[in-house]
Amino acid sequence: ENDLLYRPPLDLAFIFTHAKDNFALQAKLRSAVGSLLQHASAPLRLHLITDEDGFHIASEIITQVQTANQLDLRYVKLVYVSADDFVSEIRESVDLLRKFLSHRSNAYYSDPLFFFSFFLHRLLPGLDRVILMDVDIKVKGDIAELHSHFERFSPTNVMGMALEQTPSYRHMLSVYRKAHPNTTLGGPPTFSNAGDARDTLLHRHGFPGYNSGVVLMDIKKLRESKIIASYMSHSMLTNLTQHYNFHGQLGDQDLYTLIAFDYPDVFYTLPCSWNRQLCVWWRDHGYKKFFNEYWVCNEELKIIHGNCKTPIPED
Ligand code: UDP
Ligand code: MN
Questions:
Q1: Does the Cβ of 258 fall within 6 Å of ligand 1?
Q2: Confidence check on the interface: ipTM exceeds 0.85, yes or no
Q3: Which residue's CA is the nearest one to ligand 1's atom 12?
Q4: Which of 69, 70, 105, 150 shows its CA 20 to 30 Å from the CA of 62?
Q5: What is the band of 199 on the pLDDT scale with cuts at 50, 70, 90?
């Protein structure tokens, strides 16, 4: 007898493409799912957005981690979601987004997969709410607790994400910020004593943008959101990227960040504990002085995100 099996299952999704022969990505999935299952207090439906090879590889990995951790195999159901067919279905929209939000210097993020989250209502049409997570994560908390943040959404909140924890949007908005020295956009999230007094004063309570490594998505609200749909147009994207002089390069989170500039109420902000980002690239590329104002999270860590290929320490 096991109480856990009588709870309603939670829907989670992972994107897992180009996985064949990509042993680094496979190892990440192993660590993400292994840690996820160890702390989960509800049965899970894992939607794997992948291809046939990838689904086969993922199924094997997930069965192995369940066996290794002596977990009841009934806790987890795997659902295959074909990315191949979907890429051709959304090709036109993705090309449009890529035109504005992919930078030649960062081709990694121009793969269509980095835009899948906008179309989650078409990828996972039968779901109400889903948590979409990167695979470069380690879970230390109960995913049911993360899921309970859906209950805190306001009527206008379509999705929930934690803030970006680096000055990447400070960089992408540098021209705009020069022209608008009092703007909070791209600034660090809370008052801090780091940096010199003038900078701190000008940019306190800034908006550093969102990170899409962990996304709570209300599928129904996404489908019905006129605001989000309005951003899928050539003229809108032209005006917006010109207005903010915005040179994106990180895929979906660039557009979410742009939407949030004008419509903050579309987004629920998750605590940093649910997406603690380890990437320190910007610290060593011109932003040493400001870096620590962004890279803060003084909470108990529940999901650690080894973004930009940063190894996640054992503990
Ligand atoms: N991903 C994938 N295949 C790839 C690259 C990425 O399936 O070849 C998925 C995977 O779920 C990954 C997510 O896309 O976690 C986002 O990529 P990544 O985590 O590398 O970006 P970062 O967090 O470093 O910006
Ligand atoms: Mn990631």
A1: no
A2: yes
A3: 134
A4: 150
A5: very low
